[in-house]
From TrEMBL:
It comes from Kribbella albertanoniae. It comes from the Bacteria. This is RNA polymerase sigma factor. Transmembrane segments: none annotated. CDD domains: Sigma70_r4. Residues 32-97 form the RNA polymerase sigma-70 region domain. Residues 127-178 form the RNA polymerase sigma factor 70 region 4 type domain. NCBIfam families: sigma70-ECF. SUPFAM superfamilies: Sigma2 domain of RNA polymerase sigma factors, Sigma3 and sigma4 domains of RNA polymerase sigma factors. InterPro entries: RNA_pol_sigma-70-like (IPR039425), RNA_pol_sigma-70_dom (IPR014284), RNA_pol_sigma70_ECF_CS (IPR000838), RNA_pol_sigma70_r2 (IPR007627), RNA_pol_sigma70_r4_t2 (IPR013249), RNA_pol_sigma_r2 (IPR013325), RNA_pol_sigma_r3/r4-like (IPR013324), WH-like_DNA-bd_sf (IPR036388). Pfam families: Sigma70_r2, Sigma70_r4_2.
Length: 185
Protein backbone atom coordinates (compact mmCIF):
# COMPACT_ATOMS: atom_id res chain seq x y z
CA UNK A 1 0.00 0.00 0.00
CA UNK A 2 1.26 3.49 -0.76
CA UNK A 3 1.85 5.86 2.10
CA UNK A 4 0.89 9.53 1.99
CA UNK A 5 4.52 10.38 1.25
CA UNK A 6 4.96 7.76 -1.50
CA UNK A 7 1.66 7.88 -3.36
CA UNK A 8 1.56 7.35 -7.07
CA UNK A 9 0.84 10.61 -8.90
CA UNK A 10 -2.79 11.34 -9.70
CA UNK A 11 -1.99 10.98 -13.41
CA UNK A 12 -0.86 7.40 -12.75
CA UNK A 13 -3.96 6.43 -10.81
CA UNK A 14 -6.15 8.08 -13.44
CA UNK A 15 -4.39 6.11 -16.20
CA UNK A 16 -4.89 2.93 -14.16
CA UNK A 17 -8.61 3.69 -13.77
CA UNK A 18 -8.99 4.27 -17.50
CA UNK A 19 -7.13 1.04 -18.29
CA UNK A 20 -9.28 -0.82 -15.77
CA UNK A 21 -12.37 0.65 -17.43
CA UNK A 22 -11.10 -0.85 -20.69
CA UNK A 23 -10.89 -4.29 -19.04
CA UNK A 24 -7.26 -4.46 -17.88
CA UNK A 25 -7.42 -6.57 -14.71
CA UNK A 26 -3.81 -5.84 -13.72
CA UNK A 27 -4.53 -2.11 -13.93
CA UNK A 28 -7.65 -2.63 -11.83
CA UNK A 29 -5.66 -4.42 -9.15
CA UNK A 30 -2.99 -1.69 -9.17
CA UNK A 31 -5.67 1.04 -9.03
CA UNK A 32 -7.25 -0.53 -5.96
CA UNK A 33 -3.88 -1.04 -4.27
CA UNK A 34 -2.78 2.52 -5.01
CA UNK A 35 -5.86 4.15 -3.47
CA UNK A 36 -6.99 1.65 -0.83
CA UNK A 37 -5.20 3.32 2.08
CA UNK A 38 -6.44 6.81 1.09
CA UNK A 39 -10.03 5.59 0.90
CA UNK A 40 -9.76 3.72 4.20
CA UNK A 41 -8.34 6.75 6.02
CA UNK A 42 -10.97 9.02 4.53
CA UNK A 43 -13.95 6.83 5.42
CA UNK A 44 -12.56 6.22 8.90
CA UNK A 45 -12.45 9.93 9.68
CA UNK A 46 -15.69 10.81 7.93
CA UNK A 47 -17.63 8.07 9.66
CA UNK A 48 -15.86 8.44 13.03
CA UNK A 49 -16.32 4.66 13.23
CA UNK A 50 -13.07 2.71 12.84
CA UNK A 51 -15.01 -0.53 13.23
CA UNK A 52 -16.94 0.13 10.00
CA UNK A 53 -13.96 1.42 8.00
CA UNK A 54 -13.18 -1.87 6.26
CA UNK A 55 -16.81 -2.38 5.25
CA UNK A 56 -17.14 1.21 4.03
CA UNK A 57 -13.88 0.94 2.10
CA UNK A 58 -15.04 -2.26 0.45
CA UNK A 59 -18.44 -0.74 -0.36
CA UNK A 60 -16.70 2.31 -1.87
CA UNK A 61 -14.64 0.13 -4.20
CA UNK A 62 -17.68 -1.98 -5.14
CA UNK A 63 -19.59 1.18 -6.07
CA UNK A 64 -16.59 2.46 -8.00
CA UNK A 65 -16.28 -0.78 -9.95
CA UNK A 66 -19.97 -0.64 -10.86
CA UNK A 67 -19.50 2.96 -12.06
CA UNK A 68 -16.09 2.58 -13.67
CA UNK A 69 -17.61 2.47 -17.16
CA UNK A 70 -18.81 6.07 -16.58
CA UNK A 71 -15.43 7.42 -15.38
CA UNK A 72 -14.22 9.93 -17.99
CA UNK A 73 -11.21 11.47 -16.20
CA UNK A 74 -12.76 14.95 -15.92
CA UNK A 75 -11.09 14.95 -12.49
CA UNK A 76 -8.41 12.64 -11.15
CA UNK A 77 -9.35 9.08 -10.27
CA UNK A 78 -8.47 9.87 -6.64
CA UNK A 79 -10.98 12.75 -6.53
CA UNK A 80 -13.61 10.62 -8.24
CA UNK A 81 -13.07 7.73 -5.83
CA UNK A 82 -13.09 9.94 -2.72
CA UNK A 83 -16.38 11.45 -3.91
CA UNK A 84 -17.81 7.95 -4.03
CA UNK A 85 -16.37 7.30 -0.56
CA UNK A 86 -18.04 10.44 0.78
CA UNK A 87 -21.43 9.37 -0.58
CA UNK A 88 -20.91 5.85 0.77
CA UNK A 89 -20.27 7.22 4.26
CA UNK A 90 -23.26 9.57 4.01
CA UNK A 91 -25.49 6.64 3.05
CA UNK A 92 -24.07 4.59 5.92
CA UNK A 93 -24.69 7.39 8.42
CA UNK A 94 -28.27 7.85 7.20
CA UNK A 95 -28.85 4.11 7.57
CA UNK A 96 -27.28 4.06 11.04
CA UNK A 97 -29.42 7.00 12.16
CA UNK A 98 -32.54 4.98 11.43
CA UNK A 99 -31.44 2.07 13.65
CA UNK A 100 -31.32 1.76 17.44
CA UNK A 101 -27.90 2.52 18.91
CA UNK A 102 -25.95 0.98 21.73
CA UNK A 103 -24.79 3.32 24.45
CA UNK A 104 -21.49 5.18 24.06
CA UNK A 105 -20.02 3.20 26.93
CA UNK A 106 -20.88 -0.14 25.28
CA UNK A 107 -19.44 1.02 21.95
CA UNK A 108 -16.19 2.23 23.52
CA UNK A 109 -15.78 -0.98 25.50
CA UNK A 110 -16.39 -3.10 22.40
CA UNK A 111 -13.93 -1.02 20.37
CA UNK A 112 -11.24 -1.24 23.03
CA UNK A 113 -11.62 -5.00 23.30
CA UNK A 114 -11.45 -5.42 19.51
CA UNK A 115 -8.15 -3.54 19.11
CA UNK A 116 -4.78 -5.22 19.69
CA UNK A 117 -2.86 -3.00 22.10
CA UNK A 118 0.72 -4.19 21.60
CA UNK A 119 1.16 -2.91 18.05
CA UNK A 120 3.85 -0.27 17.44
CA UNK A 121 2.28 3.18 17.08
CA UNK A 122 -1.10 2.05 18.45
CA UNK A 123 -1.18 4.66 21.22
CA UNK A 124 0.00 7.40 18.83
CA UNK A 125 -2.79 6.47 16.42
CA UNK A 126 -5.35 6.64 19.22
CA UNK A 127 -3.97 10.02 20.32
CA UNK A 128 -4.19 11.37 16.75
CA UNK A 129 -7.75 10.10 16.39
CA UNK A 130 -8.71 11.75 19.68
CA UNK A 131 -7.16 15.05 18.55
CA UNK A 132 -8.84 14.92 15.14
CA UNK A 133 -12.19 14.23 16.81
CA UNK A 134 -11.88 17.60 18.57
CA UNK A 135 -11.72 19.49 15.27
CA UNK A 136 -14.90 20.85 13.68
CA UNK A 137 -16.11 18.52 10.92
CA UNK A 138 -15.23 20.85 8.04
CA UNK A 139 -11.66 21.33 9.27
CA UNK A 140 -11.18 17.64 10.10
CA UNK A 141 -12.37 16.64 6.64
CA UNK A 142 -9.95 18.92 4.76
CA UNK A 143 -7.10 18.04 7.12
CA UNK A 144 -7.61 14.33 6.52
CA UNK A 145 -7.95 14.80 2.76
CA UNK A 146 -4.89 17.00 2.33
CA UNK A 147 -2.54 16.03 5.15
CA UNK A 148 -3.27 12.33 5.68
CA UNK A 149 -4.60 11.21 2.29
CA UNK A 150 -2.24 13.56 0.41
CA UNK A 151 -4.84 15.11 -1.89
CA UNK A 152 -3.65 18.41 -3.43
CA UNK A 153 -5.54 21.48 -2.18
CA UNK A 154 -7.07 22.15 -5.60
CA UNK A 155 -8.45 18.61 -5.82
CA UNK A 156 -9.78 18.75 -2.26
CA UNK A 157 -11.54 21.98 -3.23
CA UNK A 158 -13.06 20.30 -6.28
CA UNK A 159 -14.07 17.29 -4.21
CA UNK A 160 -15.74 19.40 -1.52
CA UNK A 161 -17.15 22.02 -3.87
CA UNK A 162 -15.49 25.06 -2.32
CA UNK A 163 -12.67 27.47 -3.26
CA UNK A 164 -9.03 26.44 -2.83
CA UNK A 165 -8.56 29.39 -0.47
CA UNK A 166 -11.21 27.94 1.83
CA UNK A 167 -9.33 24.64 1.89
CA UNK A 168 -6.06 26.41 2.74
CA UNK A 169 -7.77 28.39 5.50
CA UNK A 170 -9.40 25.31 7.02
CA UNK A 171 -6.13 23.36 6.96
CA UNK A 172 -4.29 26.27 8.60
CA UNK A 173 -6.95 26.54 11.30
CA UNK A 174 -6.92 22.78 11.83
CA UNK A 175 -3.13 22.81 12.22
CA UNK A 176 -3.33 25.69 14.67
CA UNK A 177 -6.04 23.96 16.72
CA UNK A 178 -4.10 20.68 16.74
CA UNK A 179 -0.90 22.47 17.80
CA UNK A 180 -2.76 24.16 20.66
CA UNK A 181 -4.30 20.85 21.73
CA UNK A 182 -0.90 19.13 21.73
CA UNK A 183 0.65 21.99 23.70
CA UNK A 184 -2.18 21.90 26.25
CA UNK A 185 -1.84 18.13 26.73
Amino acid sequence: MASALHQPPDETTTRLALAARAGDLVALDNFIRALHLDVRRYVTYLSADPQSADDLTQETFLRALKSLHRFEARSSARTWLLSIARRTVADHLRHQASRPRISDHDWQLAAEQAQPRNLPGFDDGIALTDLLDKLPTDRREVFVLTQLAGLPYAEAATHLGCPTGTIRSRVARARSTLANLVTAA
